[in-house]
Write a structure and sequence with these properties.
Layout: H1 14-45, E1 46-53, E2 64-67, E3 70-81, E4 84-92, E5 102-106, E6 115-119, E7 132-134, E8 139-140, H2 145-159, H3 168-181, H4 185-204, H5 206-225, H6 227-246, H7 248-290, H8 293-316, E9 317-318, E10 323-324, H9 335-346, H10 351-369, E11 404-406, E12 412-415, E13 429-430, H11 441-446, H12 449-456, H13 458-462
Parallel strand pairs: 1-7, 2-6, 5-8
Antiparallel strand pairs: 1-4, 2-3, 3-4, 5-6, 9-10, 11-12, 12-13
Length: 463
């Protein structure tokens, strides 16, 4: 019979040992899978950040990470790194945090645990990514009570009495202030009374004062809203004054000239005032007559027709060749309509019947003579009528001087007067560089003596 002391002699069945091993493996896999799943879930739902602080007193792993006082995460680890403290924490990524947010250690009370506050809250822009680092210049820690107490103690000890200054710096300041106020009570009283009166007057006129301040605020607001226009106006005014400064002499000279013109105009009006008044009255009578209905209609018709007539004349006349390049003949593309419509327009009684009879009897004749364009040309002038500036010369020396015109011989110029048609007036000139030119004897007689001598020699000119 087996007892509890020989239980090690008991042998489990083979199936039981396999089941135990399988159970242990399944449990281990479940633990590993659960831990891996938890890590994966945390990685997907949280953002891990590293921050550096000068110190992390009373801050421990597991403390809160807050946004606007609401817990959103936990501190994971705190470890020293050189002179700084490296704090790693995470927060739920469903709460967006600005990429440039600060990490501030909060101290709710002297004995409570501390927490990290991320500030400011997110509004828009980029967010803090996973694995981000908050540098030292974006972290803050609270002032420790011991440090504050030591600073206050040091300040008090410095202001207190010493061997060199029995009253201490603060006591000496109080004593100096007391000495300065000694015997000045009446002045201080007068000053305080005046200040009270001034405040009373200001209080009584507070409505007016606030009205002035409100108006001034509205004025400054308007200037702010129209800043661009105000700056542009200031710039334009500066440019205008700069131009006036640069051109003050020209402006003064222009004003002097205007003054002279006004003086001359005043003298002219004084001498001819009656004549000018009479002329203005006559002009008023003329314009009044023109503005009557019938003259006005005629003037309007003339102003309406004459420009088209002048344009047509300019288009058909070519002054360079003295010819009419257009034929002022109505085209006969449909003469039947022209004649019959004229008869119909001139008739009164039976005009419709007259037009039908015209078309009946004249159609065979007018259809035989109709044409699109005139079968003849018209050329009233057959001579060149070009202007002097429209003629190009092979050499500029061949161009006639003022008062002379070309002849049939290049370089020989005849006088250009009202009575020189046909070139029968003597006094012709020769172009420079024409020595040795052979001319007809009759032509030599028309040339001026000086030009003839230069052309053929003095001896021959005297014969």
């Amino acid at each position: 019979m087996a007892t509890i002391f020989d239980i090690h002699r008991l042998r489990l069945p083979r199936i039981s040992r396999i089941a135990l091993v399988a159970t242990v493996l399944v449990a281990a896999l479940a633990v590993v899978g659960g831990y891996a799943g938890w890590r994966l879930y945390r990685a997907l739902t949280t953002t891990t950040v590293t921050a550096y602080f000068h110190q992390t007193n009373a801050l421990y792993p597991g403390d809160k990470v807050q946004i606007a006082g609401i817990r959103v995460g936990t501190i994971d680890s705190i470890e020293p790194e050189g002179d700084l403290m490296k704090v790693t924490f995470h927060f739920q990524n469903r709460y967006p945090v600005p990429a440039d947010a600060k990490a501030v250690v909060l101290n709710p009370s002297l004995v409570a645990s501390r927490s990290i506050q991320l500030t400011p809250t997110y509004t828009d822009g980029p967010t803090m990514a996973d694995g981000a680092v908050i540098p030292l210049d974006r972290t803050e820690v609270p002032v420790e009570w011991d440090d504050l107490r030591n600073e206050i103690t040091e300040i008090v000890s410095r202001l207190g009495p010493t061997d060199d200054q029995p009253r201490g710096p603060f006591g000496e300041v109080v004593e100096s202030f007391a000495d300065g106020l000694a015997g000045r009570g009446a002045q201080i009283n007068t000053t305080l009374t005046g200040l009270a009166d001034a405040l009373t007057a200001l209080h009584k006129g507070s409505d007016d004062f606030f009205g002035v301040v409100t108006s001034l605020a509205e004025f400054v607001n308007a200037l702010h809203k129209n800043n661009r226009q105000f700056v542009a106006l200031n710039r334009d005014l500066a440019e205008f004054t700069a131009k006036l400064t640069d051109s003050d002499q020209e402006l003064a000279e222009a004003i002097r000239r205007i003054d002279h013109v006004l003086a001359v105009t005043r003298a002219f009006i004084d001498d001819n005032g009656s004549v000018l008044a009479r002329d203005v009255n006559n002009l008023a009578i003329t314009t009044t007559a023109i503005m009557q209905p019938e003259p006005r209609e005629g003037l309007e018709t003339a102003l309406h027709v004459l420009p088209n007539l002048a344009a047509n004349l300019i288009n058909i006349y070519e002054p360079a060749h003295g010819t009419l390049t257009g034929v002022p003949v109505v085209t006969f593309a449909n003469p039947l309509q022209f004649f019959c419509s004229s008869i119909q327009a001139a008739g009164r009684l039976g005009y419709q019947e007259s037009a039908e009879l015209c078309a009946q009897y004249l159609t065979p004749i007018l259809d035989a003579i109709k044409f699109n364009y005139a079968p003849f040309g018209m050329n009233l002038f057959n001579t060149a009528s070009t202007l002097p500036n429209q003629i190009a010369y092979s050499e500029e020396r061949l161009r006639p001087p003022p008062g002379f015109k070309d002849t049939t011989v290049p370089g020989v110029w005849a006088r250009d007067t009202l009575f020189s048609h046909g070139n029968h007036e003597p006094g012709w000139k020769i172009a420079p560089g024409m020595a040795g030119l052979q001319l007809h004897p009759n032509t030599r007689k028309m040339i001026a003596p000086d030009d003839l001598a230069a052309l053929m020699g003095t001896a021959e000119a005297g014969r």
